[in-house]
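Below is just one:
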Amino acid sequence: MEKKFARTLVTTALPYANGPVHIGHLAGVYIPADIYTRYLRLKEEDVIMIGGSDEHGVPITIKAKAEGVTPQDIVDRYHTIIKDSFEELGISFDVYSRTTSEIHKKTASDFFSKLYKKGEFIEKTSMQYYDEDANQFLADRYIVGTCPHCKNERAYGDQCEACGTSLNATDLIDPRSAITGNRPVLRETKHWYLPLDKWEPKLREWILEGHKEWKPNVYGQCKSWLDLGLQPRAVSRDLDWGVPVPVEGAEGKVLYVWFDAPIGYISNTKELLPDTWEDYWKKKDTRIINFIGKDNIVFHCIVFPAMLMADGDYQLPENVPANEFLNLEGDKISTSRNWAVWLHEYLKEFPGKQDVLRYVLTANAPETKDNDFTWRDFQARNNNELVAILGNFINRALVLTHKYYKGIVPALGELTDYDNATLAEFKDVKAALENNIETFRFREALKDAMNLARIGNKYLADTEPWKLAKTDMTRVDTIMYIALQISANLAIAFEPFLPFTTAKLRNILNIKSCEWEELGSINLLSTGATINAPELLFEKIEDSVIEEQIAKLNRTKEENLIKNYKPAPVADNIPFDDFMKLDVRVGRILECTKVPKADKLLQFKIDDGMGGRTIVSGIAKYYAPEDLIGKDVCFVANFAPRKLKGIESQGMILSAENPDGSLVVIGPQGEVKAGSQVK
């Protein structure tokens, strides 16, 4: 039996305010949440969407130290960037606040205090690393050392980013403080823990029995955690940035960010609705939907619900529709490597194209598995779908109306069987859209909306009113009436997905407002109503624009290679006498040609000062033959000859390898005679 709700509270994962928002965040959380919320508003349901910046935690303090500023400076900067870019993209929050607000600090503190007084926490002491010079305990990210698995020397105390392994700080080989570089010592410290194991039976019943309709990726991850058995989890840590633990004797300790941040949903609702916020959190006829990415499933399905259960007054979420990850050009999005498409940069570089990004990210949403964003696909979807299907239909319908009727909606005449079949087909779109949006299948819902535009295009192509206008204007009246009604329906169907486009379309059609229940009607525009002059809703994106974005990513890739380059380990020592056996000479390249049927090989004729020799070298990928003729190079002269592709090679040209794997031939600086020995 379908549940009935008086109101809906939509929350979105709080973006971490140590950097801007990128397309992975948008596809995973914010665009799906906005589609769902806009849909409910169209249905005139009571719904609010709550958002805000997560502004506490160690990464912010690390960034502040690195820049020589305060943590507040960092969060002020990025909160503004994030909030402004969300607003420009049309993410329609009812409130977008932050966890450094006074109302949040009080709400989080009060939440902890209530659980503390109820005896819901366990106090435990443990040994943690302490930097004696910095005079502070070290959070995991302030401890670096050698990974015991892959030997990466820059592993953190919680994870090795080279091999991806989760770690404890005590697992690190040769641990050292990221603050002073000194070796830390272990000291005893006291913290408070939420006993998740106490709530495991209730969580198991609530999720595994009560919410089998959740997305398989969410349900499956929850089941895995529950089957492994839950353990107490610390809710405090030693740090000077965050909400202070409101307990006597807890000086220098703050609420752990995972405990602090989700309370932000509550405090932000209080900020929006100071008098009625409890209706959205505590009344049983409220539906709470948490939109998150898959890295937050455990916090929103296990930890935060356990906190709410421990409090006892709050409703639990009805659904947590987490998406998987979006990759970029076949590689994982990484903020530390700057491998991302940043929203604030996109908005500057693609002005007026907010809906293009919304469309592409919805069409490629990683709803059931990781998906990939590519700039070529972005271009293709804009040009082949938004321009060629949606934009083309609307433009044809409007242009023909102005051509034949001077912008006046004609009268509906007698319907043919084909007209009726078309109308029946587009009336079915509403039910399909509703089903997919309400079950969080936004990719399919977007296809349903675009299918309405395809129906319109086919209808005009099949009926050909531009031909009938010469002989049967009565028939053209009916065709154009139906085409305009489909256009008006598109303004409703696409409203949750493309709000800027539909606002523009409503303005052209002179529709002041639209309601979801009207979707499928053939009376949205009245006979005799005036429509404004047509405008193009979308424009083609040229190859040069896309090539610049690809080049920008390639520059990032090159910068990362250089920044993260580590020379290969030095080979084992060899005796001096072995080194002296090498005879390295200088030679001048007289001829250079590609070796047939060998992509990597070049054949050289070398002036070695001794009559000349042939050398074959595998550097064809990095040089054109004509670029090397006349160059002086160093080569090993006393290698035993060997045959490569039937050519006898009489030595080896020396090259150096760049961070990206490319090779550069080594030669002398200045004038040196061919055949000279390298000493």
Observations:
- The domain at 576-665 is CATH 2.40.50.140 (OB fold (Dihydrolipoamide Acetyltransferase, E2P)).
- The chain has four domains: 7-120+256-332, 122-191, 374-566, 576-665.
- The first strand starts at residue 7 and ends at 12.
- The two ends are 87 Å apart (CA to CA).
